[in-house]
Amino acid sequence: MNDRLEIVPLTKPPCATVHVPGSKSITNRALVLAALASDSFPGDLWGVLRSEDTEVMITALQALDFKVETDWRKNFVQVYRGEGEFIPTSEANLFVANSGTSMRFLTALVSLGHGRYRLDGVPRMRERPIGDLLEALCQLGVRAYSEAGNGCPPVVVETDGLPGGRVSIRGDVSSQFLSGLLMVAPFARTDVILEVEGVLVSEPYVAMTIAMMRRWGAEVTIEDRSFHIKASREYRLCDYTIEPDASAASYFWAVAALTRGQVRVSDLTMHSLQGDVRFVELLEEMGCAIVRAETGITVHGGPLHGIDVDMNDISDTVMTLAAVACFAEGPTTIRNVAHIRHKETDRLAALATELRRVGAEVVEFDDGLTITPQPLHGAEIETYNDHRMAMSMALIGLRVPGIVIKNPGCVAKTYPHFFTDLERLRDEPQEKKS
Q1: How far apart are CA 41 and CA 240, in angstroms?
Q2: What are 233-285's pLDDT values in tens digits?
Q3: Which spans in 231-334 are helix H?
């Protein structure tokens, strides 16, 4: 892909059905769960997302001597551990690029091993905090530390298996710390009790983790902010189908909203494991009509008005909503998302900068933004190597001429074919209005 991509405005509102790829969040969880389950027979995963983040996870599992076979024509992955130790190798040096889920989940996963493991990533990953997870592992009897002593990667884990016990962990930086611990807890030598201190951000992702663990046979009891995981030492499910990605779907629902078109994302329903399906409720509050069906969710765009919303639990869609807000009547305020400053970039600062670049009025505060629509104009958009910046700002280009996305290839992190799918909206056969 070229280093710059100009987005050409749509000449008419789309009326289309879109098929988005599998969920990145579910894929990376499923890879970990399947790897731990596959002592007697392979774990078969269907609908797997092929992207930079998921390939990073697969490569890391292979470096740990798990057997992973892929058939990307069928979006199929088979994972096999074989009999013996939960982590087949006693030493590994893992590179996770800028995949936060891989760094957090693998740090927890290797605590089940017997040996020394080191995990590192790109320069931005070395700025992303992981100290709370390392402290929690230490409370459980594992030696886990930041090599630089600053609470960020590179990470070193020295372990003789996971003893288990009671641990407290902060929940206000990343829910992935808790999800990583939850997934490995059944393989501790004794039961694990995880207690969350303070606010838990992105709570639906923890609910996703627990739902998937239970599908694999884990026993998890929840009482208030305490999670009790039985040390069963096994997972039992070996065939699992991954849902379409709700965060990816948000961009196409947003297209319908800001063009007053009609877009259906197929095979994704309100029963999804992913909290991000709630994004359509925000569009509904802004003035869209939503059709919820067992075959998919359709957004019908309409006149939009600004809203004031707490997006803590669906923070991966903050940037999508920010793009839509530029075309609403009146200001939109997004609150309680301070933790997204620790993502691929400081997303609040980046959004404020780039939205101002195209003419929007933006007030940035500690945990959110207020966006007041103004006449917009073309500009070259910095993406900060952040896939969600590239995808969300591209939406503005469907209405505003002259929007150029720099480093568009960064979408490979979670959605390699995003711009191809976006372009298909121009040529999609018109559907009968429903």
Answers
A1: 14
A2: 999 877 899 999 999 999 999 999 999 999 999 999 999 999 999 999 999 99
A3: 246-259, 279-286, 318-325
In tens, the pLDDT along 327-373 reads: 999 999 999 999 999 999 999 999 999 999 999 999 999 999 999 99
Contacts of 126 (CB under 8 A, 6+ apart): 120, 148, 152, 153, 154
Encoding tokens for residue 214? 């239970």
At residue 39, the pLDDT reads 65
Q: How far apart are the first and last CA of the chain?
A: 37
Pairing of strands 165-170, 192-197: parallel
Q: Note whether 318 and 346 are within 8 A (CB).
A: no
Cis amide bond preceding 21, omega within 30: no
Round to whole Å and give the CA distance between 107 and 101: 10
Mean pLDDT score across all residues of the chain: 95
Q: Residue 382: what residue type?
A: E
Q: Which residues contact 268 (CB under 8 A, 6 or more apart)?
A: 20, 243, 244, 246, 249, 277, 296, 297
% of the chain at pLDDT higher than 70: 97
Question: Residue 81: its pLDDT value, please?
Answer: 84
Name residue, tokens 């359709």.
298
Active-site annotation holds for 316: yes
Beta bridge partners of 143: 158
Which residue ranges form the domains of the chain, and what is each CATH number?
4-21+244-424 (3.65.10.10), 24-228 (3.65.10.10)
Cα gap 48→71, rounded to integer Å: 10
Torsion of CA 230, 94, 24, 201, to 10 degrees: 60
Name the residue among 149, 144, 147 with its Cα closest to residue 177.
144
Distance of alpha carbon 395 from alpha carbon 257, whole angstroms: 10
Identity of residue 415? Y
Q: Is the four-CA dihedral 128, 133, 138, 141 of positive or negative sign?
A: negative
Give me the catalytic one of 132, 245, 316, 386: 316
State residue 176's pLDDT score.
93
**DSSP string covering 341-380:** GGSSS-HHHHHHHHHHHTT-EEEEETTEEEEE------EE
With 60 as the cut, is the pLDDT of residue 434 above it? no
Can you spell out the DSSP letters for 92-107?
EEEE-TT-HHHHHHHH
